[in-house]
Design brief:
six-stranded parallel sheet; globular
Amino acid sequence: MSAPGAESSSPLRGSSVIGQIKKAGIRHVLSVPDLHTSAGLLRPISQDPDLNLIRVCKEDECFGIAAGLTYGNIRSMILVQFTGFLYAINAIRGIACEQQLPICFMIGMLGKEPGVRPTESRKFGLRIVEPMLDTLGIRHACIETDEDAAQISSLVDDAWRASRPVAILIGGRPEAK
């Protein structure tokens, strides 16, 4: 079985993801350097005058900062690699889930095989991401193609409407276009 959007031949462009982030009213992006999204997302975000990149030392710090921004009714996006998601799981549980905050985060799925669902990956760390999100009750979607990217702004809007966290798995490595 292939991942959603995998049958499409349109690669994921960083500019499409950034456009959706902006469409969702996000102006602050919190991140630890992320190899999977560095060239296609992180670098263009750092150079975009409409976005404020907040660099942090550890992934769990992102969730505390994002929580503070939500109290000011300020939308942000967290950008971490799947290993950082796993590292920050207690902060996600305690801050995003138990406090029912609309914290939105993207998880770079470094090494995910194209067209393969994350739960069917050969990499154990990738296989457990979606089941962990399901256990936490966090709505999520896997973005692999440009067509998939169109979901991002509505997922963010839904998170804010329901005051619940949302996760966007970046399955395809975003191209720097």
